[in-house]
Write a structure and sequence with these properties.
about 110 residues; mainly alpha; cytoplasmic vesicle; membrane; Vacuolar ATPase assembly integral membrane protein VMA21 homolog; Vma21; endoplasmic reticulum
Amino acid sequence: MAGVMHKFLIASMFMWILPVAILYGFNHNLLPGSTTLSPHSLTLLSGFLAVVSVNIVIVFYICMALKEPADKHKPDAAFLAEAKDSVSKLTKGTTSSDNHALKKQE
């Protein structure tokens, strides 16, 4: 579980750092060629590249999640038993309430 959280935190940091770095680089003329652009073009290009960078990070995160083996994560046996018990109680409760509702309609 720690590995999954570690990957999530790294992806989240990149989703914040990359767009801010791109916007900062364009607005402070740190990237080559950005000085020749008009302010309107500079805003559009930097915003577009910032959005694209976030989407690239999301795609990489999804690819990492899909490559993770499915059999690696096993559910907790106690939690699973409690969940099954809860569901069985819930389904038993709805059938009796459905019968009660049918009797009221008659």
